[in-house]
Write a structure and sequence with these properties.
Blueprint lengths: L9 H7 L1 H7 L36 H4 L15 H11 L6 H16 L6 E5 L5 E5 L12 H6 L2 E3 L28 H12 L3 H13 L1 E5 L2 H23 L5 H14 E3 L14 E6 L4 E6 L2 H5 L11 E4 L4 E4 L8
Parallel strand pairs: 3-4, 4-5
Antiparallel strand pairs: 1-2, 6-7, 8-9
Helix pairs in contact: 1-2, 2-10, 7-8, 7-9, 8-10, 9-10
């Protein structure tokens, strides 16, 4: 059974700051300067709860706190039946941490030009897998600095609960992972930040840069909530491990703002808000008759990612301080 500590309670975030939880629910693509639009459920798993929980309903604070609290839980905490249902409907399968570690190590092996930078993988005789942490401060290759590593952009596609980005717990077993043993791409950046900074101000500035360089997208709204919460609490975990105290609320709020941009809701195959493509009905009046035609979304019909009539998702380029459509980053064939 999964350890109950892995489930971050929305009520806990709300009690800390309602605005903090509000930020974690925001969809920046759909929101305007005068109106916030939240990510939506994009799953029928909660529909039997009634109004506010249907597939297309926005995830509101009141739907996940108070008497309605504790309904969004990690996959490891869900029942076997719920896990199987989500696997059938959305091909949702979460990767064990040892595999995330192995694949993240491959990325770092290429970047550093050597193996075993953060840990050494272990294949145990009983068929299980683990790793031994390299506890020595990380040494950087010639021509590269720790800031270069922190600022290097990383993206987890179809991220689910974001196990490749942060590893507060094993998404399969539900066992918590201590800070010193974590293997996510953001975990590694924050380890580097902690090894190379002294004051809280230095740490916060570098940690913000680390968060600005980490991205992930996902279809289902509840997974986005889980991923965003995991990234927020990872910030808390590393700050506490470094300074043995909590950060100020304003620091948490800014990290939540970065997270709300960098973990976003998208149909990854076509680059738009899920289910936003639509058919267009056209009526043409002639002298003797009225003709009605229905035109399918051109992008869907032609399988052309640049011609959809859905709402293309926006992300933020923090280095250039500008908003752009995610599909603009995809090279034309």
């Amino acid at each position: 059974m999964a350890d109950p500590r892995v489930d971050i309670k929305e009520d806990e975030i709300f009690e800390l700051s309602p605005e903090l939880l509000n930020t974690l629910l925001k969809d920046h693509t759909l929101s305007t300067d005068t109106e916030q639009v939240n990510i939506f459920w994009a799953t029928d798993n909660y529909a039997d709860r009634g109004e506010g929980y249907q597939y297309g309903d926005q995830i509101k604070i009141e739907a996940i706190t108070g008497t309605n609290g504790n309904i969004i839980v990690p996959r490891a905490v869900k029942s076997r039946a719920q896990q199987q249902q989500r696997s059938r409907e959305m091909a949702e399968v979460f990767t064990p941490s040892w595999i995330c570690n192995k694949q993240n190590n491959l990325v770092d092996n290429a970047w550093f030009g050597r193996e075993g930078v953060f840990n050494t993988e272990i294949d145990n005789p009983d068929g299980t897998h683990s790793w031994i942490v390299n506890s020595e401060p990380v040494v950087f290759p010639d021509g590269k600095t720790w800031c270069d590593y922190v600022n290097e952009n990383r993206l987890e596609i179809t991220c689910g609960e974001a196990p490749y980005l942060v590893s507060r717990y094993d998404t399969v077993t539900g066992e918590p992972i201590p800070v010193k043993r974590r293997i996510g791409m953001l975990d590694r950046k924050l380890r580097i930040v902690s090894e190379n900074t002294t004051t809280s101000g230095e740490w916060l500035k570098a940690a913000q840069a680390a968060y600005m360089s980490i991205y992930g997208f996902e279809w289902q709204g509840d997974n986005i909530v889980l991923a965003r919460e995991a990234l927020l609490y990872t910030f808390l975990d590393y700050y506490r491990a470094k300074f043995d105290k909590d950060p100020q609320l304003k620091s948490l709020q800014y990290i939540a703002y970065i997270i709300s941009w960098n973990i976003w809701q998208m149909d990854g195959l076509i680059g738009v808000i899920p289910n936003s493509c639509h058919s267009v009905r056209t009526t043409v009046q002639s002298l003797f008759d009225t003709e009605e035609t229905i035109q399918e979304c051109e992008g869907c019909r032609l399988n052309n990612i640049r011609k959809h009539n859905g709402i293309y998702c926006q992300i933020k380029d923090w280095k250039e301080d500008k908003i752009l459509e995610f599909v603009s980053l995809i090279k034309k064939q």
